[in-house]
Amino acid sequence: MKEVRLIGLETIPIVEEGDDVGELICQAAEREGVGLQDGDVVVVSHIIVSRAEGRVVNLADVEPSEFAKNIARELGKDPRLVEVVLRESRAIVRMGDGHLICRTKHGFVCANAGVDRSNVPGEDRVALLPEDPDLSARRIRERIRQLTGKDVAVIISDTHGRPLRRGTINVAIGVSGLEPIWDRRGDVDLFGYVLRVTQVAVADELASAAELLMGQASEGVPVVIIRGYGYRPSERASARELVRPREEDLFM
Amino acid sequence: MKEVRLIGLETIPIVEEGDDVGELICQAAEREGVGLQDGDVVVVSHIIVSRAEGRVVNLADVEPSEFAKNIARELGKDPRLVEVVLRESRAIVRMGDGHLICRTKHGFVCANAGVDRSNVPGEDRVALLPEDPDLSARRIRERIRQLTGKDVAVIISDTHGRPLRRGTINVAIGVSGLEPIWDRRGDVDLFGYVLRVTQVAVADELASAAELLMGQASEGVPVVIIRGYGYRPSERASARELVRPREEDLFM
Questions:
Q1: Which of A117, A171, B93, B197 has the fewest CB atoms in 10 Å of its CB?
Q2: CB-CB under 8 Å, B122 with A190
């Protein structure tokens, strides 16, 4: 029997701009009796990182462009929201049927460029993705090391729709301390066959595992500690490794 | 603190045609001291189901068609393997660069129509996906209930590549006993905002969580018990709900 534990922290307070997310995680882990250990993977919902980093926009302050107004009319959306989405986008991948699928400045393809209306206090406020989610992850990781002496890996997660399959899943948009992709090419299987093409997106699988707890308590679990998973450490990891360059995307 | 446990079974024997996978799972869970409990989710790698169901083809027995030979030449593949892939496919979605992306008879879009060379004993043998993975899941679930009296949910998993993001993740290709998609439309978030579009593909997230253990021990962990996750029960569930109809696929 091999075991991995998913431990959802339930006592992280409502995060506001300027809060120290790393410290809040350490305090909650201590308070809930689980602490942090070397080799833990700490998965953090981007929404609390965005709020701590002040990546929240009040729609009342937004002046939509003419183009934003056109698209908003077409899609039945709030033109101010569309304006914010366009500012966060490098390209529109597809639009229609009330949806706006964008490529973000980071390179991720997702609905509304990751701009999120839920889990933000205030009627007219929306959260953007962190400016540099890898950097956000690194800061949280370093803060945890500073406060506890423990070497953990950190993943910033977001919920994405995807082509081909229905329903959203949680994926990694920022990582620090672990290889997001486990390159198994050349490994041997149970019967000695050499694997030829297997690269496993472990950071996305860790993010998805964490959502099993994040999603359950009306968003009251923004941080999940994954204990017992033997990740491959890396000091230069980036979640951008998970973005498939358009030219090698056989599916599209 | 809320916890979900991922428990990987390490003593499932090498599965052969005709083996009773449900019974092997019960025996291993007992032997490893974890047993099975009401509400467990049992994730089973399709490869042992395929082997138990005799879905293994000896390439020496396969006569490739002229078209299979053409494609094999184009892609640098074994023409007998291509022939098997074509027999399992309802459509070729894309080909090139040594890859053959197909829509399987079940509707899943994946490389080589899910035909797998690894983890099959014998040089020239390949495994196909189960004929009806939902039915395979249901049989395992019923067998577990019969042997232990416990009501569990069962997911048959496979490893898929995907558009937009690099690396493979584990997804559900067969389910029994749980809703594969958690429809949260109308739920309220932490600040009272009504969620409008969130449907979470929990069966895929459970499959991905399980792979954190399956992938680690050179494929020696074909079954993972997920304990403590409050799934939504369903007697009519099908993994086909996770297949996005082409006409509603905004990404493609």
A1: B197
A2: no
